[in-house]
């Protein structure tokens, strides 16, 4: 698919048999919105176009690895909800424009790396992430207004979050 679809801005993949989503350099260079939903054969997300503003990877029950986040400086919304086999969100520190992170019902999610660099983050939903032990760096998310941590381990959700974020949060659900 070298250089085909150079003008494509929105791509939705629904209930496909793809096992990997990855874009070679120059493929879909202005893609801004990528939605991959109910793709139960999807295991890995590789390289993604740098122009992405919204990335939705939802209800992909076998998705385990999301490698393509590095370098997505324009990304404003990331939704990985109901991807119950994702254990880690790496390279979040490069998502300097991210405003919304939805990861509810990711029951095996243990780690979100780089929260301290997400200074524009306004919404974080980790509802039902029962393996998530902590959110290191969340205290640096000074614009965070909405946090849903229901179903997360209570020892960090109640004490640390309330202590560090009580001044700016408008909605807190724990």
TrEMBL record:
Domain Zer-1-like leucine-rich repeats region, chain residue ranges per copy: 69-129
The source's domain of life comes to Eukaryota
List the Pfam families. LRR_Zer-1 (PF25013)
> Matching InterPro entries, A to Z?
LRR_dom_sf, LRR_Zer-1
The molecule here is called Zer-1-like leucine-rich repeats region domain-containing protein
């Amino acid at each position: 698919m070298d250089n085909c679809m150079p003008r494509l801005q929105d791509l939705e993949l629904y209930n496909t048999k793809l096992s990997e989503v990855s874009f070679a350099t120059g493929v879909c260079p202005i893609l801004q919105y990528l939605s991959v939903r109910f793709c139960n054969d999807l295991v890995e997300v590789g390289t993604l176009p740098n122009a992405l503003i919204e990335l939705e990877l939802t209800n992909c029950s076998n998705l385990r690895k999301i490698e393509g986040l590095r370098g997505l400086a324009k990304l404003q919304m990331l939704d990985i909800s109901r991807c119950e086999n994702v254990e880690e969100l790496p390279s979040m520190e490069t998502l300097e424009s991210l405003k919304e992170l939805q990861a509810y019902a990711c029951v095996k999610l243990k780690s979100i790396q780089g929260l301290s660099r997400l200074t524009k983050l306004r919404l974080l939903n980790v509802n039902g992430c029962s393996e998530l032990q902590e959110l290191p760096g969340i205290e640096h998310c000074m614009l965070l207004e909405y946090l849903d941590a229901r179903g997360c381990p209570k020892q960090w959700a109640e004490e640390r979050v309330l202590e560090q974020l009580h001044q700016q949060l408008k909605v807190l659900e724990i």
